[in-house]
Amino acid sequence: MTARKELLISAAVVVLFAFGPWLSPLLHLDVSIVSEVLVTAIAVMSVNLLLGYTGLPAFGNAAYFGLGAYGAALSVTYGHVHFIEAVLIGMVAALLGGLILGPFLLRRRGIYFGLLSIAFGQVFYFIAYRYTDVTGGEDGMQIARPYAGLPSAHVTVTDLGFYYTALVIFVIALFAFRTIVRSPFGRTLIAIRQNEPRVRYLGLNTDRFIFVALLISATMAGLSGALFGLLINFAYPLELDWHQSGYFVLSMILGGAGTVWGSLVGAFIYVIGKDIISTITQWWQIFLGALFVVCVLGFPRGILGTLQALRRRAAQQFADDDAHV
Amino acid sequence: MSDRILLEATGISKVFGGVRAVDDVSLQVREGTIHALIGPNGAGKTTFFNAISGFAFPEKGSVKFLGTDVTRMLNWRRIAMGMGRTFQTPSIFPELTVDENVRLGVNAHAKQAFRLRAPRGDAKAALDKRVDELLGFVNLTAQRDRPLSELAHGSQRLCEIAMSLSTDPVLVLLDEPMAGLAEAETERIIGVIRDLRERLGLTVLFVEHNMRVVLSLADRITVLDRGKLLAEGTPAEIAANESVRAAYLGEGVLDHV
Known about the structure:
The complex is a heterodimer.
Chain A: H1 3-18, H2 20-23, H3 31-53, H4 62-79, H5 83-105, H6 111-130, H7 132-135, E1 141-142, H8 159-182, H9 184-200, H10 206-232, E2 234-235, H11 242-255, H12 262-280, H13 284-298, H14 302-324
Antiparallel strand pairs in A: 1-2
Helix pairs in contact in A: 3-8, 3-10, 3-11, 3-12, 4-5, 4-6, 4-10, 5-10, 8-9, 9-10, 11-12, 11-14, 12-13
Chain B: E1 5-16, E2 19-30, E3 34-38, H1 45-53, E4 60-65, E5 68-69, H2 75-81, E6 83-85, H3 98-109, H4 121-137, H5 153-165, E7 171-175, H6 183-198, E8 203-208, H7 211-217, E9 220-225, E10 228-233, H8 235-240, H9 242-247
Parallel strand pairs in B: 3-8, 3-9, 6-7, 7-8
Antiparallel strand pairs in B: 1-2, 1-4, 4-5, 9-10
Helix pairs in contact in B: 3-4, 3-5, 5-6
């Protein structure tokens, strides 16, 4: 795809979301559900960086997501901070989580990396679950959505204000993500996925790359978690649970592993699908699960990944036709 | 050829499940030589190669590279010191294009691999120039934008050689660079190995099975047999060596020389 065309499509998507509050009623959706799509997409991106690009089974990213949610919730409850500070504190909490877990996770690759990630995530889950005095335990903690701080105090308190804040943050996060995966650093992560020994035989310490990828991923998940906590005005232990990590992974696979926009597509289908199906039946997980199975069987590269492969094949076809003329 | 010794392996031993795959083997590679490591199947060539390049550490013995003891040094540090290596089965990034395969090492060597933004301007031009040089050297410029998995086996080998050169090594280790290739592709690789020394002034240590190729290409040959050092010398000395002839008995390769 040419840079121009890509820019046009990206701009079109952003404009479409800018009209989200007017479009969502047409689909009988609350605007906060569309906010949730944008917020979740950031967490799915964090999984995509580790799993889709670097090939590390990031089965525990809910740990950082939950740290972000609790970081924001605790700072609002006990520190009475503004919205932006709460988000930043959530991100820092998740980054610290990554700094602590990273050195241990680095020692393993493949499925053992995934198992360790789940195990560490569950540790955080039980801390939030048991430490009732501070976190509210199983009941979670209710918070009041704080004012924005600067420049306009009231923006973030309303659902509409929150939506546009989330949209701006999402666009920034997506642009940062795109810049990173296209940088020499991002190319090296892709190379690590394909053949880590060879990357070492190019004179690079792959552990350092994986560690930095992990920190970026944790911070992104923390950003998503903090926004999610502020969106629903609530932090609860299940945000840290491995089921939550699983939903992020499934959304990534659904949207397209290793694609920039796949995370948004996956998050869209997961969040909207969950919302629509759960109003019809309380057994929504069965139907969502079936949807995942169909997608993985039908489109193993995810929706965007499959589209890209089809377009490449079409382009190849044209090139071959040219050669025969 | 100078008297400077780039690589010195002393008394290398490695055991696999009770079998001494490499038993007390020593070898010196002088600067500017094309040095071949040969031997029948199972002689321990690749095991020895892995010990030198840090793919697997030896149980006994030491490896010195550029005067530094690297026996237990991690492989990526050795590469950063100036060692390049290819593998018997090409170790490549199949889904990336030829250009990207080579560029990774160029970025690594230019200390650009950690950048979080794509390089622009002069920095990009310098990297592009180096990638162009390397692709030109192995004659893959025309295929640069194709995924490496689509290329023929011989071209993948050539790309892997360019990758091993991308980090600006002084010593290149090639593990059976001609294995499984057709006649024409073999000739192409032989030409490239000659160019490594003639045009780039590099030192080469390569493992090879084919005696005829080795005798025409190398100026120094080390022969292994069943994990032990059998002989070392110039091609003429090796061709005349009785025990080498015995080890290769029946293969008939030495009769034509």
